[in-house]
Specification:
The chain is mainly α. It is built from eleven helices and no strands. α3 packs across α6. It is globular, with a radius of gyration of 20 Å. The C terminus is likely disordered.
Length: 269
Amino acid sequence: MNLFASYFGTGLTGFVALFICLYVMSLVLLFSTGLVMTELNKRHPERRIQKRQPTHEALRDIRSSLKQLSITSVCLSIGLFAQMKGWTLFGPVALSWWSVPLFFVISLMLHDTWFYWGHRILHTKMFYRFHKPHHMTVTPTVWSNDAGSSVDTLFAHTYYALVLFIVPIPPLVFLGHRIFDQVSAAIGHCGFEHFASPTARKPWPMLCTLYHDQHHQYFVYNYANYFSFWDRLCGTIHPTYDDKVHGFEEVYASQRNGGEAVAAASDKD
């Protein structure tokens, strides 16, 4: 029996209970990630990506996020509930040492593709009015990720409502993907670079905070969510991205070297 079905049941009350739990989880992630990253940013002001200050107040973005996270939770509930009811083309694959990492990566790649092309559509003349509220924040903060319009949210997160109908992702893996998505996206909007590394630049496809921050700065670059390969393939990656990631790596190295020098001096004393 499906794990979620055993906890929530397969009736209407089960769907509502599932939605409430997922929404509460989203709020916990919103505030815990936001508070942790805010404190980390305070400790490392030299890692600020943009010199300009954010134009949106945190409270404004939080209010918008409360609404948009409810829509995301509905989408996630639809997908998981449909799988519980057996309405999907295939039942979920059982959890195992191979299925967990495999389907986690598959889900990330599918969502990244969905997100990239949906994001490109949102930047067209016909649809940009729905995406514009999110882009009013040129300098994003950790509270900016989920703030925006409902249409914007649906473009990104109807993936969670639909993909389980055709891909047999284990429900716990799917939930893990959603948790990773919310946390990584919040970090991607935090405005400070804490995770630059060689794996976040060419030839690796991984990303760091700078990636989406540049999208807010320049609007027509860096559309992807988790990986850079769609932007690299389609020529939409910002031309300075890789060099700036390397620049932050050098900042980290100088900080480490400075700390080691201070420690060595203390030992001599």
